Amino acid sequence: MKFIYSSIITSFLESKINKQNIRILLRFIVTLGIMITVYSVIFHFLMAAEGREYSWMTGFYWTLVVMTTLGFGDITFTGDIGKAFSILVLLSGVVFLMVLFPFTFIKFFLAPWMEAESRRRTPVELSEEIQDHIIMTSYDAITIALIEKLKINQRDYVVIVEDLDQAIALHNRDVRVALGHIDDPDTYRKMKIDRAALIVATNRDEINTNIAFTVRELNETIPIISTADSPHSIDILTMAGSSRVLQLTDIMGRSFAGWTLGGDGMANIVGRFDELVLAEAPALHTPLVGKTLVESDLRNRFGVTVVGIWERGKFEIPTPEKVIQRSTVLIIAGTEKQISAYNENFSLYQMEKHAGDPVIIIGGGRVGKAASDRLKERGIPYVIIDKNPKRVTQDNHFVVGDAADIDTLKKAWIEKAPAALITTHDDATNIYLTKYCRSLRSDMQIISRANQDRNVSTLHRAGADFVVSYPSLGASAIFHFLIKQDILLMVEGLDIFQIPTPKKLIGSTLADSKIRRETGCTVIAIKQDGVLFTNPDPHLPIKDDSELLIIGTYEAEYKFMQMFS
User: Domains in the chain, start-ordered, CATH in brackets?
Assistant: First the structure.
């Protein structure tokens, strides 16, 4: 406790302003002391004039009683001069003790003291023991989602915050923050940049460029991952020193297109581990709908293994009796040849079902434009609905109007469109349009954008088949860059992670470990002696120096880490 108070006092006295404030407060107290002394002396003379004698202590006592407005009682003047003097002392006390003294004390001492204590709670420098940590230069939707993933995986991090009030608020919410300027090299020295694992810059493009330049002055090797709002900023950020630049709007648009059922209906490849390929395969409009996994016979027909099932916002561990619904997304694993065989078979059904029917893209911004470019590459017809005529080019791919207007939707072929991509940057609008489109077409595939993670479940309830979350997309891309894995974002809330086999699992079998039952995760492959075994035998012991490839939700991943790491 003594150390805490001494550190606060040290921090308090380090400021020149605080030292000046203390001098002002001391001058006020000295002035007040002189005033009380003078009043006590005058009290003696006036009392002597009335024929009464009191001690010096009584004089100070009377002065303080009157100045603090505690009232008269045992000692009072009888003459008019004494009463006038009492009024003067009383008014002086009201002004100096009731008004000026509290104001002076709070402004020049208490407030600076509390600020010094708050600064002590918000560090400006990390400890010497920290290493392999992630330094973030902004606290936003992306870094909030990233922090959750880092906590699950027990990785150290720090968020640099420039505003003291924000730093205090985040500290009180158990966010690890440090106070500093993101364009100051000394800040990164205090953040132990030489021992950090990654710099994450998610600010505006101009600020991210400044951060990259500043960091590169201190360290030429540390990885820097930056986000870019404009495609024109990618080259500038790279030249400034960014190791990787994420244009999330483009990635999001491509994710929209990858999950769209339009012209080919192919499985969307989301990750590769050596020869193993993971893909998301929507079952909509395929003969798989209505069948159980056993009846689908996918493993015998194509060699692929269903390692997970995504059902409109909910991940399920596959069971042989699971019935495939129109909204089901199969997470399949196999070689690239096996995935191709799957695609060759099921893409024919999509092409026959929706040949020539355009996909509706609601919102012609950067995400909508990226989605349309990807659909164009795949040869899928599309039409973009946008209110802003400045975004519209003179061709048959655009409809100017409000997507909430049925006439506008009819112009975009809502009656026949295989899918609707809702890409606006406002979640309330996306929820509204998702509900509206679902009421018009119960059989249409709807993919919607979420700009805040808290709205993901609401969009699913409104009728979205898939939700592309901007924060989760950015957080997943950054995290997989950190752990050097080439994985794209799967459907919202689902993740794949590869870890060395925990010590608790070495020597045991998958069946004995009860990973699936206790955590909700599924081990889809085990890498031993340099060989990747897909769909591993649950009764074979897990060897030392092996790696597990696991699929599960974020919550399941957290349970796994808590139980076995």
Answer: 2-121 (1.10.287.70), 134-246 (3.40.50.720), 252-471 (3.40.50.720), 493-564 (3.30.70.1450)
